[in-house]
């Protein structure tokens, strides 16, 4: 695994991933033994509708002017709740999941979602 800045690569055989604090579930192939599911409560704190609408209208103008054929408009959304990253990894239903004990959790359905301790990102 290579980080975006290519400064802290992690290279080792998959069977040693758990020893490095890296857990995965890739279409059912996993190195993680799940825990019992718990009831969760998550609250999201997105940007205001007015802020998103303003950006959406700007994107629409640019698309109509032919300045892009593909665009992904996203904003960071803070989430709070009674769940830690390990429990989130355990309870996520997705064909591709990754959890690094250094406070990173990701799962993939049709976009890559990355949760850090205080940040959430969507990457197509």
UniProtKB/TrEMBL annotation:
UniProt cross-references to Gene3D superfamilies, sorted A to Z: Anthranilate synthase
SUPFAM superfamilies: ADC synthase
Superkingdom: Bacteria
InterPro entries linked to this entry: ADC_synthase
Protein name stated in the entry: PabA-like protein
Protein species of origin: Rodentibacter pneumotropicus
């Amino acid at each position: 695994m290579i980080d975006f800045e290519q400064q802290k690569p992690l290279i080792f055989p998959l069977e040693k991933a758990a020893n490095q604090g890296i857990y995965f579930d890739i279409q059912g192939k996993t190195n993680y033994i799940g825990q019992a599911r718990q009831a969760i409560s998550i609250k999201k704190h997105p940007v205001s509708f007015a802020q998103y609408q303003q950006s959406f209208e700007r994107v629409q103008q640019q698309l109509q002017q032919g300045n892009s054929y593909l665009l992904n408009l996203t904003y960071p959304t803070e989430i709070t709740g009674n769940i830690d990253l390990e429990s989130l990894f355990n309870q996520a239903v997705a064909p591709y999941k990754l959890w690094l004990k250094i406070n990173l959790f990701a799962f993939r359905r049709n976009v890559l979602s990355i949760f850090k301790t205080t940040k959430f990102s969507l990457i197509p």
